[in-house]
Amino acid sequence: MKKNIILLFLSLFCGLVLIQSCKKNDDESIPDPPNTEPPLGTTFIEPSAQRSGDAQAGYEYLIYGDYVDAGIPYDLYINIFGTNTENLLQRTGDNEILAPGVTALNAPNGVRVVATNCMQCHAQKINGDFVMGLGNSVADFTTDQSNNAQTLDLGVQFTYGANSLEYEAFEPFGRALTAIGPHIVAPKVGLNPAAKLAVVLAAHRDINDLSWQSSPLIPIPDETITSDVPPWWVMKKKNALFYSAGGMGDFARISMASSLMTLQDSTKARAVEQKFVDVMAYIKTLEPPVYPKTIDQEKLARGEVLFEYNCVACHGYHGANSTYPNLLVELDKVGTDPVLAGSNYTDEAFRQWYNNSWFSTFPAAAQFNPGAGYIAPPLDGIWASAPYLHNGSVPTLEDLLDSSQRPVYWERSFDTSDYDFEKVGWNYEVQSGANTKKIYDTTLLGYGNGGHTFGDHFTEEERSDLIEYLKSI
Q: How far is CA 292 from each of CA 97, 152, 350, 424, rounded to the nearest angstrom?
């Protein structure tokens, strides 16, 4: 039984890098002023009003809160999975000995359980440092977790009894695992099926009061199209969430949907929603980790000029005078794998469910209206967020900026300290095929590494200078 028993729904957010071509004055060899007008093939994403909250209260709720309010009885969890002494979240009490991706809390009937939390997908170590808000790119969701659910169900019944309060506190968690498990199996380690999870959970919830339905009320698509997990700290700059800009309206309401795993009905949803206003306030305080190695300042300066004349129109300025244009880039322009943009949140049955459900009610309404393209995201902390592109198909920034060297099959160790700080991304080995779950296969549906060829025109020196600048933002 895997320790990582379930991913959380949040998968929230962003596409990947779009770079404009550079233009020079042939007569004087002096670049024209940078063009910051929205390029052809892009559309501005309109903002929506967001609520203000208490960042500290949001952090406390994130690491201790009951947004997923059912789980494995605490004593049984410790007996099966053991303890974790790192205490990366610096929690107290019985949470002190738990991994950051789970939380000890009281179920509605008072039983102490261990439930999953947001850090399963939105926190990770890199270079030995734990980074809150960094997308988890090493999690393994390649097995059908309904098998684990059945084993846990029998274990809880055997230990405490089928009519026990402990089983009552476990049952909503077990039924959710059983329902979603067959539908969210990722093809490779490191890929996240959170968007598909959202569709499956919606299918099992009443559109009005969100009560659990044993049979799905809307069709569930056959394909499981996964994605890379973008970092949380870019969220405060964005006017819409997720790679194809589908999440619009109130971000707190969109992001609290992870509670669909176990909540009883919309009464609990309203309580969680108020807390997630604070969670969003906390997320807005997050900043990217600083590149930990020495940066060549001369190369950085040259790279910053290249960035200004090639990248700013889509990705905005970074640093003290930060701006972000919030552009959706058409599929034909960016050229990256189009499958994610046409799956999950674009499924018409899901969209109709969400846009007519409790989540779309005022005054804090949320909607899913994905565009036919991908967001050109802010690049803050891009050095730490490998692999690249929305599907995690490119292992390093150097490969991203030179499409000719992107591997078809590649394998990494999934050791979070095994990082290439020069090419900027994961150390990897090129493979001739993909006969294990740890080898990324760009020939699979939805996992192509083509497109985003905007760096191909750079010389090797220019590419190196640009990467040096990207390390700094």
A: 29, 42, 42, 12
What tokens appear for 299 in the block?
């190369």
Own/partner contacts of 156-164, CB < 8 Å, gap of 24 or more, are 156/72, 156/73, 156/76, 159/73, 159/76, 160/73, 160/76
202's CB contacts (< 8 A; 6+ apart) are: 218, 260, 350, 353, 354, 357
Q: Are 353 and 218 in contact (CB under 8 A)?
A: yes
Phi-psi region of 166 (alpha: psi -120 to 50; beta: other; left: phi over 0): alpha
Q: What is the per-residue pLDDT for 155? A: 97
Per-residue pLDDT of 40-97, as tens digits, reads: 999 999 999 999 999 999 999 999 999 999 999 999 999 999 999 999 999 999 999 9
Closest CA to 227 of 260, 197, 268: 197
Give the number of other CB atoms < 10 A from CB of residue 109: 11
Identify the CA nearest to 140 among candidates 180, 172, 184, 100: 184
Q: Which amino acid is at 342?
A: G
Q: Which residues in the chain come in under a pLDDT of 50? A: 1-30
Q: Residue 34: its pLDDT value, please? A: 62
Q: Which residues contact 362 (CB under 8 A, 6 or more apart)?
A: none
Q: Where are the alpha helices (DSSP H) in 89-238?
A: 119-122, 146-160, 165-180, 194-203
Tell me, rounded to whole angstroms, the distance of Cα 423 from its chain centroid. 23
Task: Please calculate the CA angle 34-13-206 and round it to the nearest 5 degrees.
Answer: 145
46-to-32, 241, 249, 356, 387 alpha-carbon distances in Å? 29, 12, 10, 21, 28
228-271: pLDDT as tens digits = 999 999 999 999 999 999 999 999 999 998 999 999 999 999 99
The predicted model scores a pTM of: 0.91
- Give residues with Cβ within 8 angstroms of 297, minimum separation 6: none
